[in-house]
Amino acid sequence: MTYERYQGPEDMEEEFLFCQPLQTTTTGEDIFMKVDSLFKEEGLLWRPCYSVCCDGAPAMLGARQGFIVSVKQENPSVMVVHCLLHHENLTSLKLSHELQKVMQEVTQVIKIIKARALNSRLFTQMCSDFGFEHIYLFYHSEVRWLSRGKVLQRLLEFWTETELFLTEKSHPLAHKFPESKWLMQVAYLADMFAELNSLNISMQGRDQTLVGLSEKLLAFKGKVKLWMNKIKSGKTASFPSFNLLLEDERFSLIQVQGIIEGHISKLIRECDHYIPENTLNYSWVRNPFNIEAEDLPDEIANISKLQQELSEIQNDATLHYNFKRQKESLSSFWIKVHKEKPNLRGEALKTLIPFATTFLSEAGFSALTVIKGKIQKPFATRR
Predict the structure, then answer these.
(1) Which of 40, 232, 255, 332 lies at a C-alpha separation of 20 to 30 Å from 59?
(2) Nearest by Cα to 8 from 328, 242, 340
(3) Most confident range, picked from 229-233, 357-361, 368-372
(4) Are 230 and 236 in contact (CB under 8 A)?
(5) Where are the beta strands (DSSP E) in the chain?
(6) Alpha-carbon torsion angle 20, 25, 26, 29, nearest 10
(7) Distance between CA 355 and CA 224 in Å, rounded?
(8) Which tens digits make up the pLDDT trace of 34-70?
(9) Residue-wise pLDDT tens digits, 10-40
């Protein structure tokens, strides 16, 4: 499933390009041959293709036989973007040994209730009798990015009921629920993954660019470092569920402070590894009127000419007024920049044309699943 983005008359255009099934194998070569054959049918060329955005699957990014290798043989200058949603997800995967064990135990608790139909019905009936708004626990799934946060939040909501249910079943994990240290770790994980889910959701949607998403990721990195400083000083307001527990004298931050600091330190390292520090390179695109011409990134080609064009734009009162009104997208502003500034406009659009995520393809596959699921199939009944 492929989408395209290109410069339109007034703004960037995003369109569905094609969806074709892979009948047998799904190697990078298979994917390329499918795309290339469609390009040839429609008279499209690889040379004008400026960038390709894909996930991190070996078939796409494989060093020898991946899709990108074949694309670069056709167009060596193509820019490759690894979906920033995948970058964000990779930063959150690694947990410390203690927290990983807690997460595994939480997953096991969910399976005890959800795996057997009778247990699931009994638990649902119990929650319904208590008058809860929600009556179901969530399954944990590694392939669903928002899964862990939702699972943990729902378990906290049903904490007492889940403990009661496991106690009635005489299950060993029922003894975990009264442990203050275990509960605090679950609450911390629920709050942390809620923050990660919030970031993930904010990065989804149409018209997302490298400029906007890089800024969101950089802001999140700043928040993580702020959390570390607050935890070290004993301040926990950034984690509401965890902070609520500490109002009870049975719970103490000292019990889990080292574990939390260790996890946040690991998260900072993962952020530095997976989240690129290139936001400053985009600052002149975000606001060309708030940067000195001499501060343009040195790696930009024809830097001297671009500095001159930027200086001319900054002294154009009409452009400055239209930019401050902010009634149009950033892409639309740069497309409308005077034709006398083609070099600067072209360089700016290089950061706005590439897809920053594979969201459209993921959403497309979700829609396709729903459509295929609605197809009526013949069935038989038996008495």
Answers:
(1) 40
(2) 328
(3) 229-233
(4) yes
(5) 2-7, 12-18, 51-54, 79-82
(6) -100
(7) 26
(8) 999 999 998 889 999 999 998 877 777 776 778 888 8
(9) 888 889 988 888 888 888 888 999 999 999 9
Backbone angles phi, psi at 13, to 5 degrees: -110, 135
Q: Residue 5, Cβ neighbours under 10 Å: how many?
A: 22
The predicted-structure confidence for 301-313, as pLDDT tens digits, reads as follows 677 888 888 888 8
Rounded Cα distance, 186 and 163, in Å: 14
Q: Which residues have CB under 8 Å from 25's CB, separation 6+?
A: none
The position carrying tokens 């695109």 is: 285
**SS3 state of residue 3:** strand
In degrees and rounded to multiples of 5, residue 243 shows phi and psi of: -65, -35
Query: So where are the chain's domains?
Result: 1-83, 89-274
Contact (CB, 8 A) for 329 and 285: no
Over residues 284-291, the mean pLDDT reads 84
The DSSP bridge partners found for residue 3 are 16
State the pLDDT confidence band at 227, using cuts at 50, 70 and 90.
very high
Q: At 23, which amino acid appears? A: Q
> CA 347, CA 105: separation in Å to the nearest integer?
51
Indicate the pairing of strand 2-7 with strand 12-18: antiparallel
pLDDT cut 70: percent of the chain above it = 85
Tokens of 53: 């955005």
- Tokens read off for 378: 């013949």
Taking each helix axis from N to C terminus, what angle separates 180-202 and 84-91, rounded to the nearest 10 degrees? 170
Q: Residue 127: is it exposed, middle or buried by C-beta count within 10 angstroms (0-12/13-18/19+)?
A: buried
pLDDT digits (tens, 9 = 90+) for 144-179: 455 677 788 888 887 887 888 788 878 888 888 888
Is 9 in a helix, a strand, or coil? coil
